[in-house]
Amino acid sequence: MYISVIVPFYNAEHYLEACIQSLRTQTLDRHRFEIIFVNNGSSDRSCDIVRQYPDLQLLHEKKPGSYAARNCGLRVARGEIVAFTDADCVVAKDWLSRIEDGMQRTRSALVLGKRLFPPHVSNWLRIFQHYENAKVSYVVGLKLRPYFFGFTNNMAVQREVFDRVGMFREWKRAADTEFVQRCIAHDPAIAISYLPEVQITHLEITTVTKWLCKMGLYGESNERVRRLFNYRKLKWKDNWQIICSCVEEIRTSIPHMIPVLLLMALSDVAYRFGVLKGMLCVWMPFRRAT
Q1: Structural domain contains residue 12
Q2: Buried b (16+ CB within 10 A) or exposed e, 56-65
């Protein structure tokens, strides 16, 4: 199967070289995939870096937003499978091979992979990394459809799915989760899988503070998805089961998971603050209109 890789970027010169090299050194035969980078208005050296590699396609999308850039890539993509990652990510050498094998083995229309933090992060983030991946495995494995979410830094989709349900909504954030929820609404039987062998490293997440900022943004943007599809956040009893599975996976004890519990509590506060902000963004225009 032919695979199209789409990577949007905006002022990503600090990460771009590492991302490019990881994609150009895949174990999959180079003639079996294309790499499409989409510039979303960069003012740094990002475009110059991409232009150094003639085997990469460079597109330009004037409309702000990474999902507008991904749609720009989708319009020219030739692959039967479309794989997505971000410019601040490094993919594993067998990333595309694992995507192809996993999709064929599970007969999935959409797959989500494992996301890692950089090797030098704190133990707090290292353990929380296990929790975040276990959460995806839990939600997808039990087919808890109202809790399904997406992340386009490590996601692959059969092209025909876009043909059936349409491309990404060109929102600022959360259009990946909206897309997953839209797929489920269009076809409740659609096969969605989590493949832990499909791995990327998210280079941007280096501190707890950066992660908490991300959680606030997720809360704000996911509020929009909730209003469309009744998208829900996991309950604490579900989180406890996920934590117990982490204990078994990394062979630790509940006391050693205390940092994760504390980080989860902080993340929950940041997420709920983001939700409140998202609700205010909806309410204020309504208030002005009345």
Answers
A1: yes
A2: bbbbebeeeb
Question: Residue 88 is part of which domain span?
Answer: 3-205
**126: enclosing H helix or E strand:** helix 123-141
CA distance 226 to 211: 22
**What is the domain count for the chain?**
1
State pLDDT tens for residues 41-94. 999 999 999 999 999 999 999 999 999 999 999 999 999 999 999 999 999 999
HSE-CB at 186 with a 13 A cutoff on CA atoms is 15
Q: For residue 235, what is the DSSP state?
A: P
- pLDDT tens digits along 214-262: 766 666 666 667 667 666 777 878 877 887 777 777 666 666 667 667 7
- Residue 103 CA from chain centroid, whole number: 17
Strands 155-158 and 110-116, bridge-based pairing: antiparallel
Q: Is 47 exposed, middle or buried (0-12, 13-18, 19+ CB in 10 A)?
A: middle
Burial (Cβ within 10 Å: 0-12, 13-18, ≥19) of residue 21: exposed
Kindly give the pairing relationship between strand 192-202 and strand 89-91: antiparallel
Position 67, amino acid: Y
Residues 128 and 210: their CA atoms lie apart, in Å, by 13
Buried b (16+ CB within 10 A) or exposed e, 237-269: ebbeebbebbbeeeeeeeeebebbeebbeebee
What pLDDT digit, counting tens, does each position of 157-206 carry?
Answer: 999 999 999 999 999 888 999 999 999 999 999 999 999 999 999 998 88
- Token pair, residue 127, equals 């353990």
CA 231, distance to chain mean position in Å, is 17
Is 47 part of any domain? yes
Q: What's the predicted TM-score (pTM) here?
A: 0.87
The CATH number linked to 40 is 3.90.550.10
